[in-house]
Amino acid sequence: MAILKVAQIGHPILRQQARLVTRDELRTPAFQAFIDSMIDTMHDAAGAGLAANQVHEPVQVCVMEVKDNPRYPYKPNIPLTVLVNPVLTPLSETKFENFEGCLSVPDMRGIVRRFVEIRVQAWDRLGEPIDAVIRGITAGTYQHECDHLAGSLFIDRVEDPRTLCTWKEFSRQHEARFREHVKEIVEHYGS
After folding, report:
1. For 166-176, how does the pLDDT look when each residue is reduced to its tens digit (9 = 90+)?
2. Domain 12-189, what architecture?
3. Which is deepest, 14, 113, 148, 181, by most CB within 10 Å?
4. Which of 97, 100, 145, 187 is catalytic?
């Protein structure tokens, strides 16, 4: 497969609403190869997820995987997941503060409030239905990636711009405290 170019903040593709994918389109060899390339690109960049908009294709597909990720050592592992045409529904009004970063917004972190429990309805890469409840930090990852498909970046959800920082300053100033916060969320919600 191929490593795809990741769009950076300012590129109009990141602000575009992604279109729905048909099952016939999804099942083509070309589309399956595109999904494989998205996965390879996510792995190459050490990302926790990647949405199609980020690689210049405005289609409703995102991929996620966290497996002892060096960029996010505090995140619970997420098995390789492909979501096609995802719909997320909050299951409560309860939110948590999540320090987020993004491959399309290099060297920037900021605090975003995310729903702690969501229902995910989508297709997998073969067009089979997914209907699952996702909680905790993992729910934040799902929301981040699906925001991309609506043309939204995490910085749009940062309520207090004073939380914005570089990755280096996050590591120096905020990571230890945030790790404790993540630990509490995982203990309470399971992921």
Report:
1. 999 999 999 89
2. Alpha-Beta Complex (3.90)
3. 148
4. 145
